[in-house]
Amino acid sequence: MDTDSKDLLDILTLTYLALTSKTEGKGSKAKQVTTDRLADEALADLAHNGYIHVSKGPGERIELTPAGATTGAFMKELFSAFQQDIYATVAADSEKQQKPQNSAFKFHIELDLGHDLTCWRDIAVPQHITFGQFHEIIQSAFLWEDSHLFEFRLTTHGKKIVIEEDADEPGEAFTTLKNDTVDAEAIMIDEIFPRTKNAVYEYDFGDSWMHSIHLEETIRSYPGTLPRCTAGEGAAPPEDVGGVFGFREFLSALSDVTNPDHDDAVEWADTENYGPFDLDEVNDRMQRWFN
User: Which residues pair with 109 in a beta bridge?
Assistant: First the structure.
């Protein structure tokens, strides 16, 4: 056992004795103990340093010395001051360990196509996935083909960060949060949400498809398969259409049989599987991509 762990064990043992000992006689504090509940090494250290006196023989007793009683009283006050926080931390850790496997976040994600075009999806995703996996789920929700770069932009812990594919300095999340850029495979979404409620997801830096992400709900136990798209509206643009301006030109050619580009637009729409929002199709893609 290292020195720090040994000292901590001594402190905890003394605190336990101070909390559970009873005043007897002339104010001395003593406790009858079963020594197998306490570490012999810690008791030996406390006795050696003059904090306790151990009576040998039947009904072994441990008595706090004046120094032990004074230090123990201080530790009791310290414990009382932080008792609520300690219990809350222990309870939170226990809850986290017992977290149902189907815990989920529900997001509303809207693709910005201008004020007169609507395209959004509501999706439920597992809480403990990477941002790289979250990217794949968003791709499947909008029927993108994952053929371009992406990034998430958000604010967490009072700092603006960018989460992207293959960042230069991947690593543990608590380390990379100090930097401006984080590798999407090095950080889990439940390290950011639900503390953070909003983010921006950009896909294809050429066409620059901007998606606003809003956390709508934290679900302890989701009653179904994850990930899942629960609702949506509007068809997402085909890949490489040329951004919002190119998409509008594409829609104009597609809807106008007199447009000289109409036949090409129809053919391209078919090739790119462009069509009205279909919930079943989106969920089928999600399951094939994620599971």
Answer: 121, 213
CA separation for the pair 169, 202 (Å, rounded): 20
Q: Could you give the maximum distance between any two Cα atoms of the chain, in Å?
A: 106
Of the candidates 263, 215, 212, 265, the residue with the CA atom closest to the CA atom of residue 237: 265
Q: Determine the pLDDT at residue 95.
A: 58
- Residue pLDDT, tens place only, 91-117: 666 655 555 568 999 999 999 998 889
The predicted structure's pLDDT at residue 134: 97
Q: What is the pLDDT of residues 8-29, one digit of tens each?
A: 777 777 677 776 766 555 445 5
Q: Cα separation of 126 and 102, whole Å? A: 7
Query: Which conformational region is residue 242 in: left (phi greater than 0), alpha (psi within -120 to 50 degrees), or beta?
Result: left
Do residues 107 and 214 lie in contact, with contact meaning Cβ atoms separated by under 8 Å?
Answer: yes
Residue 130 carries which DSSP code? B
Cα-based distances in Å from 4 to 7, 10, 11, 165: 5, 10, 11, 40
* pTM of the entire predicted model: 0.63
Tell me the three state secondary structure of residue 215: strand
User: Cα torsion for 187, 193, 197, 198, to the nearest 10°?
Assistant: 20
238 touches 269 (CB < 8 A): yes
Cα separation, 36 vs 34, whole angstroms: 6
Q: Which domains does the chain have, with CATH numbers?
A: 3-97 (1.10.10.10), 104-237+274-290 (3.10.290.30)
Count of alpha carbons within 13 angstroms of residue 162, beta-carbon side: 11
Dig out the tokens for 153 from the structure.
């932009």
Structure tokens at 65: 């010395």
Q: Which amino acid is at 9?
A: L
Fill in the DSSP letter of residue 259.
Answer: S
Report the distance separating Cα 134 and Cα 111, nearest Å.
16
